[in-house]
Write a structure and sequence with these properties.
The protein has 232 residues and is mainly α. It is built from eight helices and two strands; from the N terminus they run E-E-H-H-H-H-H-H-H-H. A hairpin with a 2-residue loop joins strand 1 (6-8) and strand 2 (11-13).
Length: 232
């Protein structure tokens, strides 16, 4: 039978505390971390697709603007971006809660990185596909959306899946602007058990790993389904 504390190699592990903390931390992950990831990723993908399409277009002013956006996001830490948005919006008399602030920051970050995935995927489609579309009378727009993008999106699924899993972990930064997500909850529990806080953080890491492991299994299943439509 497990006691309140267990000793392994001279290390005392507060088993009872870990048992009591597991569900509160996991529940915050399900209630806050996962929705935060899903919402941010959804808007990020929309931003990414628009950015990628603009950057392969012939509209030079827009290409320059979106290139600067991608460069700025990729060249600065996500935590700094989060703080800038969190403190900048009130200066502009835009008062919103920390949760939507985190969504804005994560969406912009995902948008910049995923746009490069989309852009590379689009450029990887053989030029012959464009020529085939034009040959049967399709316009540039129709060829792009009916021929090129479906192929590019299939190619982009694996790296986008990795980005999604990475975003799950990056949402822990939202704790720095007082969003009570998975890591923030572990901080709150650890604050009342300072002498055992390292075990609370290990528990939080374990829960993150469980979530990411489940998502990885889903990613592999999705890739296997898409492989069925890949010419061999």
């Amino acid at each position: 039978m497990l006691t309140s504390n267990m000793v392994f190699g001279g290390i005392v592990i507060p088993w009872e505390l870990l048992q009591q903390s597991f569900w509160p931390i996991l529940i915050e992950g399900i209630k806050v971390t996962i929705p935060l990831t899903l919402i941010s990723f959804f808007f990020g993908i929309i931003i990414a697709l628009i950015t990628a399409l603009v950057r392969i277009s012939n509209i030079k002013p827009l290409r320059w603007i979106f290139t600067v956006y991608v460069s700025a996001i990729r060249g600065t830490p996500l935590l700094v971006q989060l703080f800038i948005i969190f403190y900048l919006l009130p200066e502009l008399n835009i008062m919103i809660d920390p949760y939507p602030t985190a969504i804005i920051a994560f969406s912009l970050n995902v948008g910049a990185y995923a746009s490069e995935i989309f852009r590379a995927s689009i450029l990887s489609v053989p030029k012959g596909q464009w020529e085939a579309g034009f040959t049967i009378g399709m316009t540039y727009r129709k060829t792009l959306f009916r021929v090129i993008l479906p192929q590019a999106l299939r190619v982009s699924v694996p790296p986008l899946s990795n980005s999604f899993i990475g975003l799950v972990k990056e949402t822990s930064l939202a704790s720095q602007i007082l969003v009570t997500e998975l890591f923030r909850k572990s901080q709150q529990i650890g604050a009342t058990n300072l002498d055992q806080i390292v075990y609370i953080y290990i528990l939080a890491a374990f829960i993150y790993w469980i979530i990411c492991f489940v998502l990885s299994l889903a990613q592999h299943q999705l890739e296997r389904r898409l492989d069925r439509y890949t010419a061999r």
